[in-house]
Amino acid sequence: MEISITIPVYNVDKYLARCLDSILNQTFKLDYEIICVNDGSTDNSQKILEEYAKKYDKIKIINQENLGLSEARNTALDHVTGKYTMFVDADDFIATNALEGLYNYAEKYNADVVVFDFLSGIPGNKNLYRQNFPMITKKYGDNAFNIKSAEPFVYRFIPVASWCKFYKTEFVRNIKFCKKLIYEDVPHWAEVFSKAEKIHYLPIPYYFYIRKRTDSIMQLKNKKLFDVLTVFSIAKKNLENASCFDKYRNIHYAHLASNLKMRLREINPEFKKEFIEKIKDYEFDVDYEKFFKDDFFQFEKDDMKIIKFIRENDYKNIEKFLIQNKVWK
Fold first, then answer.
1. Mind listing the pLDDT tens digit for each residue in 270-310?
2. Model-level pTM greater than 0.85?
3. Could you tell me which of 166, 161, 64 has the C-alpha nearest to residue 105?
4. Residue-wise pLDDT tens digits, 254-263
5. Same domain, 151 and 253
6. Can you give the residue range of the structural domain that contains 280?
7. Are residues 300 and 319 in the same domain?
């Protein structure tokens, strides 16, 4: 088996057929398998999977109780048999030449990980946004990089999402996703980046992130948003284990500050004060003077200024400050 495509499935009956069709209609001629982990769906997802499995022996269905996205991906990793592994979310889809292009590129360069572009947008919108990284192409071309050889901007620009990467299975099989946490891609990418010997970037958009869901995990506004602090702590530990945290320190905290600002925008009012206290208590070993002199985008510096203000002021002043800066209404 050459490639294993893993799909976590939970109540995605509106999108599942589109996803499966995109994987089944590939130009790739060698053997590949599609491992679908039905994570306790209560809609028609299971029925759709069974209908497809009757027609296509490539599809393998694994049923489990609802344990969450991380556990569904971990279950899939336990069953992959392909030389390479690719993660696809059930409400997304891939280009028809994705497997062929990624497989040939990974084989040519013996890559542990191939990062690739994706297109994002909402259904019906013809103007899709392409996420690409010309600075990485300019610096490395087809050459490999890793945590020790890469310049810090590489870690900044590559998205944490697991689905915009193509992995050698023997490398990724034992890099599991954190259980019972959202934003699980943050520590997973940090561990992948920390352990891979050969990461390559292929500037071709093979993935389509086209969705408009109101029931997505990213719509959560409750205390699960606090997980953002936990996953960044785990990511920091992964960088420390590779003896590279000092090199990526400011990049790591820039990511965290921007994520915290987004979560502050989303959190329900009843949890605002508690979230502020979590941020104040969090261990930020940041040299602000050096950070603000570093080569960051202005929005990243502005986000860090917000976090700095939160950590140095009381709640009444913080609330006023966040309203003035249009983080809160």
1. 999 999 999 999 999 999 999 999 989 999 999 999 999 99
2. yes
3. 166
4. 999 999 999 9
5. no
6. 220-324
7. yes
